[in-house]
Amino acid sequence: MAKGKRLTPQQIREQEEAAAAALAAAEESDTNPVVPTNDVFGGIGDTPKNEIKEDPAEKELTRFEDIRNYYEAYTGGKQSTFYLPEELLRKLKAKLSEEDMSITDKIKSLLLTYYFEDKELKDSYQKRPK
Q1: What residue segments make up the domains of the chain, in order of their start?
Q2: Looking at the record, which segments are called Disordered (predicted)?
């Protein structure tokens, strides 16, 4: 199909039916053939399941330094609110601005360095949702 040309609803329906039939046939034959792709699916299914490699970064960590590095690099998490006197918060923001660091990153660094013990970090890592 030429770029920029739109498909009619009938053409889209036909492509969807063909892809669904190919997927059903692959599931019935218990093999992992490559599902044909087209512009509608944008490359979805062009890697058979048996060729998908596991990310080595997903392996279970056991060393404290690796777990600490995992948490230092972690960007998700839950939001929380804390309260400080206004003048301390202003000073904190000014210092962190000079360091080019966010409040979240600084608190995380302080907790990992000074507050949590090795065993506590390892326990938290083991209990994290996977």
Answers
A1: 9-51, 56-127
A2: 1-52
